[in-house]
Amino acid sequence: MGEDNQCVIVVREFDPSKDLTSVEEVEKRCEVGPSGKLSLFTDLLGDPICRVRHSPAFLMLVAELSSTKEIVGMIRGCIKTVTCGKKLSRNTKSDPTKPVPIYTKLAYILGLRVSPSHRRMGIGLKLVLRMEEWFTQNGAEYAYLATENDNQASVNLFTDKCGYSKFRTPSILVNPVFAHRLPVSNRVTLIKLPPSDAESLYRRRFSTTEFFPRDIDSVLNNRLNLGTFLAVPPGCCYTQESWSGTDEFLSDPPESWAVLSVWNCKDAFMLEVRGASRMRKTLAKTTRIVDKLLPFLRLPSIPEVFRPFGLHFLYGLGGEGPRAAKFVKALCAHAHNLAKEGGCSVVATEVANCEPLKIGVPHWKRLSCDEDLWCIKRLGEDYSDGSVGDWTNSPPGLSIFVDPREF
């Protein structure tokens, strides 16, 4: 049966006018997580391409049986230009000692699903290879994906059969949203930046960070972006009322400062944890009831994650100075309160494993992932900047810029 079905697998572009119901059915049958344990399900809110549609170029493919037209798998991909390294500027008008970014066209694979009843038939491999064809046709120089370190089937598919290599192991940090608000330190002043100032700050301070998107302006002006927030010491010359722009700030920055942006995933998709015991659900509900009735105690409570819930994603974390990590903590508290107002159950971020500001990000270890696995593949030999060499062999930096459009 397996050999017969393999011969009639057709891979084609997703057609929302006729494929929507079938794709949603496959999504529902595909759990994310170890079988028999807690699993994470995604409700795409009727939009199967919601997690790639905000990228500059994107595609969704489906695999169907030609005999029955049954959809048995799907894959999404997108392409953008990001920083893959840095070099010293040769422009005589700029500072020759200041590094400038080296950009590359990068493709990203996500949402690979194969119906449980049609696995081990080579469908996943067919979908990946067809998606890579599209990447190459559109000039992508590298492709990468994220998968769980312990998802051996996924790791084997990409590293053994598709030629990907293990590349980076960032940390996913998840914090629950409590029924009570978190206090924001009075030793910090928070400023919400206009998108234009946020773009200028990111380009001038973080454009050489690995994976920084060259179209950061599109990210910051997207409807899902809830704002960029800057933390500075109180009593300095920078406040919301007196803010006069990034140029003045960077010409005379305070000793310590930090910045982050907030992305509203709730309006794109919802998540749900399944497989929890009745006792675990009861315990979680009890903590929420106590927290709601006695918010002044500020007791940590387990959010409602056993039914569809929303999240906010924190990205663009950065800062300078000895108190930058403490300022990040204040920014995270503010982001928590925004998520509470927005009806979200968790806030999440993803940072490099060795990110210095990681210590300032509150998170629950049980909800987080110490090592998310990113795998990468070099797609061609011609590159937009010959000096980059082979990015797949480059050592990791202290930081990465995680694009919220791909979370």
From TrEMBL:
Q: Which Gene3D superfamilies match?
A: 3.40.630.30
What organism does this protein naturally occur in?
Answer: Theobroma cacao (Cacao)
Cross-referenced PROSITE patterns:
GNAT
Every copy of the N-acetyltransferase domain together lies at 9-183
- Protein keywords: Acyltransferase, Transferase
Q: Which GO terms describe its molecular function?
A: acyltransferase activity, transferring groups other than amino-acyl groups
Q: Which residues form the signal peptide?
A: none
Q: What name does UniProt use for this protein?
A: Acyl-CoA N-acyltransferases (NAT) superfamily protein
Q: Which family is this protein grouped under?
A: Belongs to the acetyltransferase family.
Keyword Transferase part of the UniProt annotation: yes
